[in-house]
Design brief:
alpha/beta; Rossmann fold; 40% helix; SDR_fam; Short-chain dehydrogenase
Length: 233
Amino acid sequence: MTTKTMLLTGGSRGIGHAIAIEAAKRGWFVSLGLRDASALPTGLSPETAEAVPYDAAAGGERDWVKGVLERRGRIDAVVACAGILEHDRIVTEDEDTVQRLFEVNVHAPRRLAAAAWDALAETGDGRIIVMASLSGKRVKSKRSGLYSFSKFAAVGLAHALRHEGWDLGIRATAICPGLVRTDMGESAANGGFPPEAMTQVGDVATLTLNTLELPGTLCQAEIAFNCQPDGIH
C-alpha cells in the first residue's frame, strides 16, 4: 500500500482526536490505539482510520504494530498523544501515582516507538511525535511539579529517539504546548485562564501534521508554543 500509515495514541478526544481528523483529511490512514475500540471517534471513517484495543498503561505495543503491518504493510509515523495529569506533590509517598504517570507519559511512547522501529526505518523517512508540554521545559508551579517531572522525561525521550534514528531517516520531535483547550488544559488552568483564549486543538493538529510532513533535512527537535507570555515561552 502507498497510503502513509500513522499509529496514534490518545485519539479519542482532545489534541489526539484533532490530529486524527487532520491526518485523515491529508490522506493518511490512522490506526488509533484506544482503550475503548468498539467504535471510531466522531468524524472518522473506516476508509481512513481504524480503532485497535490498546491501553498505554498496560502495554501491548508489539501486538498493535504486528496487526497494522499485516493489514497495511507499512508504518510511517508514531504520534504519542496519550497522557495523564496528576497534581500530586513531587515529594508524594504515593508511588502508584508516580508510576502510573510515568507509565503513560513516558514508558508507553518509548515502547511504541521501539515496537514500530524497524517499520519506521524501512520507509527511509519515518517520523515520531512525542506530545510533551511546556511543563517539560520548565516547572511553573508547585502544583505542576510531578507532572513536569514526567514531561521532562518525555522531551528527553524525543531527543534520544532523534539521535537513535537519524542515520535511518527517522526524525523525532517533542511538541511542547502551553495551555490547550482540552479537559486536561482546563484542569491545569484551574479556573485561572479562559478556555477561549487557550491554544485550540485544531491549530495543534495542523502544526503536528506540518511537522510530520517536513523533509528530513528540516528536522525540529522541539517545538514550544503558548497562548500567554510565560518566561522565554
